[in-house]
Amino acid sequence: MSLEEKVRAVIYYRHPTRGILFCIATRAAGGMKGEKECLGGGIKSGEKPTAACERELIEETGFEPQLIQRHLRHHSMRISTLRNTEVQWSIYVFLLEADTAFFRAVESFDTPTEEVSALCWMPYTESSYLTPYQTISIYPLLKEWNQELKTYLPQ
Fold first, then answer.
1. Contact 51, 72 (CB under 8 A)
2. pLDDT band at residue 29, thresholds of 50, 70 and 90?
3. 50, 66, 112, 153: which one has the fewest Cβ atoms less than 10 Å from its Cβ?
4. Does residue 6 lie in a domain region?
């Protein structure tokens, strides 16, 4: 069984009227073309998960590194493991809170990258965007984070 390490960035925004929204990417190429999922990708040999997450976000969004770095926090990292018959994934999941500038950058995303054709915000309750492995590895973390985040939202 081989081991693959991946990073995912769960980017959320606490909208004053729409609750908690998550940033979702639509894939532009390859076997994932047209599918929606959380931003992220593989970790290169010798690369730290935080650095990989930062690199992937910049590659996939085309956003300025400063915008990404302002939101990426190492203490938010959680690890999820998923095994199947051939591969074991170690998935480092980062929770990033978007500020207004990041929210607007996603809303005005109009220059597709090689990997991502579109970005959008979706309500937390819309879980159908996750790929099968994300449903198993990331969705439980999303549910846990959502409960934590709800306590901070105005009623």
1. no
2. confident
3. 66
4. yes
- Specify whether the CB–CB gap between 39 and 25 falls below 8 A: yes
Q: Domain tally for the chain? A: 1
Asked, for residue 155, whether it belongs to a domain, the answer is no
Span 105-131, pLDDT tens digits: 999 999 999 999 999 998 877 766 677
Contact present, 110 and 50 (Cβ < 8 Å): no
**If you search the block for the tokens 């959502």, which residue do you land on?**
146
Domain containing 137: what range?
Answer: 2-150
Domain membership flag for residue 118: yes
Alpha helices (runs of H) in 31-137, residue ranges in sequence order: 49-61, 65-69, 100-107, 132-137
* Residues 65-92: tens digit of each pLDDT: 998 888 876 556 677 666 666 777 778 8
Residue 107's alpha-carbon distances to 4, 13, 139, in angstroms, are 32, 12, 23
Output the domain CATH number for residue 74: 3.90.79.10
Q: Which residue has the tokens 């073309």?
A: 33
Reply yes or no on whether the pLDDT at 99 is more than 80.
yes
